[in-house]
Amino acid sequence: MTVYRTCTRDWSTTTPAAAPLAEPAVPLPPAGRLADELFLIAHDDVTGKRRAPAGVVGRGLAAAMLADLAFVGAVTVAATGKVVTGTAAPGAVDPWERTVLRWIDTDTLHPPAAWIDRLAGHAYRSVADRLTVAGVVRPRRVRRWWRRETAYPPVDTNVAAWPWARLSMRVRRSIRLSVYDSALARLCLTTGLGGYVLGVDTSTARRQLRQLLTPVPPGVDELVRHLAAAGARSRHGQHDRRSRR
Q: What residues does each domain of the chain span?
């Protein structure tokens, strides 16, 4: 069994363009959703423990879930800057995503940042449940410092490692990323998980990654931008709270 591990690259040198990457026969999460693959990247591919704070992962998954809906035309960011529902092909969304669409369709129009904040608390559990039902992860209660929480160790380490390993291999070989992988890479960078794709998360590495990105649909790009803004607001709020102590 091949087990993928992070590789560190010297980003001061460039890598010649490589032949197209031959993908191993590894089953992917159901429907190849951004939210599912971001969830796997956000958790250790052996222990299943989170690699980033719960709030950060939750916001990232909320944005990824909305981006998944944008990719199938179920939501879009209107000219007004508000998220609105669109038309998706039958079977393109699952029951939880249909619930989200009903919320968007019946609630007051909100910008992407507001929906990311509102869905952050729901997205983590819904994606975890989806991957559990699909047999990709198996929940396990663990003690972490002073509290107990749920880890999500994978049923197959190769399946869990494949999303970040795929991105990492393409970046190291200077292979241009697809639209889907470009969206996933942007989500990883914005949620602080870039190191698992780049090996070393530096400005030079990020600059070289940006050269490999393919433009994503405007609605997806807007969601990633608002995710970055939501993260900045959260960090600013934490700083203010510490300053008042």
A: 30-244
